[in-house]
Amino acid sequence: MLAAFTAGLLLITVSELGDKTFFIAVILSMRHSRRLVFTGVTAALAAMTVLSVLLGQAASLLPQIYITWAEILLFLGFGIKLLYEASQMPPKTECAEAEEAAAVVEQAELNLPRTPLKNSANPVLSLNSPQMAIVFQSFLMTFLAEWGDRTQFATITLAASNNAAGVTLGAILGHTICAAIAVLGGRMIACRISERIMTAIGGALFLIFGALALESVL
After folding, report:
1. Angle at the Cα of 147 (from 182 to 60), degrees rounded to 5?
2. How far apart are CA 142 and CA 105, in angstroms?
3. Contact at 8 Å (CB) between 152 and 174?
4. What is the rounded CA–CA span in Å between residue 175 and residue 199?
5. Is residue 111 predicted with pLDDT exceeding 50?
6. Shortest CA distance to 141 belongs to which of 28, 16, 6?
7. 159 and 53 in contact (C-beta within 8 Å)?
8. Is the CB of residue 6 less than 8 Å from the CB of residue 104?
9. With the C-alpha atoms ordered 108, 110, 113, 117, is the resulting torsion angle positive or negative?
10. Residue 174 and residue 11: Cα distance in Å, rounded?
């Protein structure tokens, strides 16, 4: 369980920093209550993690040799892809993920209440309240942005061949850490982090997990 927890924590934390969902949380927290945005974002990421782990557990019903080779190919494929992308990036790049996230938020904000909530003194949430609209919108945008992301596939793969509880706890903690960083000033931090370096680190981490899985079948 400890190995699964550590793998989930490392993989998610490194992969999510500077990702589109990270910047969605950054931008929303600059416009609305950080508490509400954090609640919606972490709920979405936790729900996606649980869903991914369940899919991974369903996949574990297949013969173990198929699962292992799928894990190897997925991790090595993602690792090579990320390292290639990092090699094509100039030393300093603009926050492309931030721009994409901003476009997503701008579109979604059209459906949000116009009432300013950043310093709202009313902590009560009702189903029809503007505060609940912020939580729901944060949840929905994050969930949809995370669907089909490489971290979702990584979580599914880890859960198929590792302790489900460990992967779930590690991945949720990793998502929570990234969401906390995002709402507490992530824009300044993320734009100072080299996207090229973070992409390369993520690629190297995927290759390491792929190599460990390969070693288990040799």
Report:
1. 115
2. 10
3. no
4. 17
5. yes
6. 28
7. yes
8. no
9. positive
10. 8
- Tokens standing for residue 23: 């910047």
Residue 82: name the closest of 175, 197, 182 by CA.
197
Distance CA 209, CA 60 (A): 18
Q: What 3-state class would DSSP assign to 207?
A: helix
Measuring CA to CA, which residue among 75, 71, 19, 77 is closest to residue 48? 19
Chain segment 124-172, per-residue pLDDT in tens: 445 557 788 889 988 988 898 888 777 888 888 888 888 999 999 999 9
- Report residue 188 as tokens: 């300044």
Quick: pLDDT tens for 19-61.
Answer: 778 878 887 887 788 899 999 999 999 999 999 999 998 888 8
For residue 103, what are its two tokens? 């476009």
Residue 188 in 3-state DSSP?
Answer: helix
The span from the CA of 128 to the CA of 132, in Å, is: 7
| Closest by Cα among 162, 165, 193 to 17 | 193
Q: How many CA atoms lie within 13 A of 80 on its CB side?
A: 7
pTM more than 0.90:
no
The span from the CA of 184 to the CA of 165, in Å, is: 28
Dihedral sign, Cα of residue 112, residue 114, residue 116, residue 117: negative
Provide the 8-state DSSP code for 112: S
